[in-house]
Design a protein that fits this description.
The complex is a heterodimer of chains A (114) and B (115). Chain A has 114 residues and is mainly β. Chain A has strands at residues 4-6, 10-13, 19-25, 31-38, 42-49, 56-57, 64-70, 73-78, 87-94, 104-105, 109-113. In chain A, strands 2, 4, 5, 6, 9, 10 and 11 form a seven-stranded mixed beta sheet that branches. A four-stranded antiparallel beta sheet of chain A has the order 1-3-8-7, with no helix packed on it. Classes of the chains: A mainly beta (114), B mainly beta (115). Chain A binds chain B through residues 4, 31, 33, 35, 40-45, 48, 50, 56, 58, 90, 92, 94, 96, 101-103, 105-108, and chain B through 6, 9, 33, 35, 37, 43-47, 50, 91, 95, 100-103, 105-108.
Chain lengths: 114, 115
């Protein structure tokens, strides 16, 4: 079974803090994704990566950055957390091969910024 | 850009009954994938079913089936013999056939199965 894990289920941070969200997958997947999920807005793509050290902006990258130093790990960084970044953050991964387009999700990190 | 619309924010169904969740999408692509993902309360999102646009036959997975109407850009999910474990948020999603597997999601439909 594919396993995608996220470092925290719940996180509380203060405005202005630097926040790291970690995601690890164990299936040697090429592609990794960070989404935020908000009621009434669904899932919105923040950043994705299709290879080590490669990254692409998604639909809402402002206020976020990412790091992918190893194939299995994809980190989301909030450089200076703000209250409007309070949300559920979901990590996902997928294989890059043909017919391997299914995304596998982690359990999510619920972030509260005070 | 692609858009995915789910017009039913919430739905309910009696246990053992059948329910259909609606999804429409907009794209200029001819070849693409469509998905339904399920997110149970406090649990991980998982794939329910997927459809490749070039296949005319509707996908089925046990009690789950889709009605894919390419010309109408419609992709509904039918759940037969609903079970309590089907209670979840359901997301319709679109992905182009080529590219970096970027997926566009709808806003979701919250389904409650009533005992």
């Amino acid at each position: 079974d594919v396993k995608v894990t996220q470092s925290s289920r719940y996180l509380v941070k203060r405005t202005g803090e630097k926040v790291f969200l970690e995601c690890v997958q164990d299936m040697d997947h090429e592609n990794m994704f960070w989404y935020r999920q908000d009621p009434g807005l669904g899932l919105r793509l923040i950043y994705f990566s299709y290879d080590v050290k490669m990254k692409e902006k998604g639909d809402i990258p402002e206020g976020y950055s990412v790091s992918r130093e190893k194939k299995e790990r994809f980190s989301l960084i909030l450089e200076s957390a703000s209250t409007n970044q309070t949300s559920m953050y979901l990590c996902a991964s997928s294989s890059g091969g043909r017919n391997q387009e299914t995304q596998y999700f982690g359990p999510g990190t619920r972030l509260l910024v005070l | 850009a692609q858009t995915v619309t789910q017009s039913q924010p919430e739905m309910s169904v009696q246990e053992a009954e059948t329910v259909t969740l609606s999804c429409t999408y907009d794209t200029s692509e001819n070849n693409y994938y469509l998905f339904w993902y399920k997110q149970p309360p406090s649990r991980q999102m998982i794939l329910v079913i997927r459809q490749e646009a070039y296949k005319q036959q509707n996908a089925t997975e046990n009690r789950f089936s889709v009605n894919f109407q390419k010309a109408a850009k419609s992709f509904s999910l039918k759940i037969s013999d609903s079970q309590l474990g089907d209670t979840a948020m359901y997301f319709c999603a679109f992905m182009k056939h080529e590219g970096y597997q970027k997926v566009t999601f709808g806003i979701g439909t919250k389904l409650q199965v009533i005992p």
